[in-house]
DNA sequence: CTGAATCCCAGTGGATACTG
DNA sequence: CAGTATCCACTGGGATTCAG
């Protein structure tokens, strides 16, 4: 359950290369989904859970901690929300989304 | 062991959204590493295995199939190599690498 | 409602030995 | 060398329950 972070071994690589940590983190079930759900604004534990197909609270809690450890998400008076870092990550992903749509067409 | 592809459920999401498939695929152990190793040119099964910490042949074989299914890798007379799609993916990842290095510094 | 603690199961990754 | 077939161990994800 430890959070994938740069400069440490992660699933798939123990080189510590930062991008490997990104893929480990975002490749884990629900993490991308959670960040995606928060793009539009803060949400409470409960609503987040509902919006993520009623995922287990244990797992949601786990993911919140991971994303918080990674400084992508933080608590706010109105629930959980993306940090600045989290927001920039989401926009950085845009080109990858574009690539993915080309990929999708070529398959 | 089925390959994560667009328009089908993958780990973390059964929405079929293409980028989720990318993260499932690249989040799996060794896949990024393999693509990375092939960036400089074709490699044989054996050398690929050596360059990836002598990973199990069963797993390597499995990953090669996945990446081939995803059209990111193909066989060539001199071994395995990236496809055009595989190459564009690698370059598309550049901004993400840049983000990851900022992330690394902020942690 | 939030979130922590247990327990359980499947899937994934890995070691190994074997065949072409 | 390339690739396959078994078999096994582990961890990650999930259900459930309980506490703050």
Automatic annotation (TrEMBL), chains A, B:
Q: Which CDD domains match?
A: HTH_ARSR (cd00090)
Please give the Gene3D superfamilies that the UniProt record associates with this protein.
Winged helix-like DNA-binding domain superfamily/Winged helix DNA-binding domain (1.10.10.10)
Specify the species: Pseudobowmanella zhangzhouensis
Give the record's keywords alphabetically.
Answer: DNA-binding, Transcription, Transcription regulation
Looking up PROSITE patterns in the UniProt record yields: HTH_HXLR
InterPro entries for this protein: ArsR-like_HTH, HTH_HxlR, WH-like_DNA-bd_sf, WH_DNA-bd_sf
Record protein name field: Winged helix-turn-helix transcriptional regulator
PANTHER family assigned to the protein according to its UniProt record, in alphabetical order: HTH-TYPE TRANSCRIPTIONAL REGULATOR YODB, TRANSCRIPTIONAL REGULATOR, MARR FAMILY
């Amino acid at each position: 359950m430890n959070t994938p972070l740069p400069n440490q071994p992660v699933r798939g690589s123990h080189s510590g290369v930062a991008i490997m940590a990104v893929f480990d983190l975002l490749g884990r079930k629900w993490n991308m989904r959670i960040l995606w759900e928060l793009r539009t604004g803060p949400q409470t534990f409960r609503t987040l859970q509902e919006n993520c197909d009623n995922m287990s609270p244990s797992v949601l809690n786990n993911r919140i901690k991971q994303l918080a450890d990674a400084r992508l998400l933080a608590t706010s008076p109105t629930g959980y929300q993306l940090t600045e870092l989290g927001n920039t990550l989401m926009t950085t992903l845009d080109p990858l989304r574009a690539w993915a749509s080309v990929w999708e067409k070529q398959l």
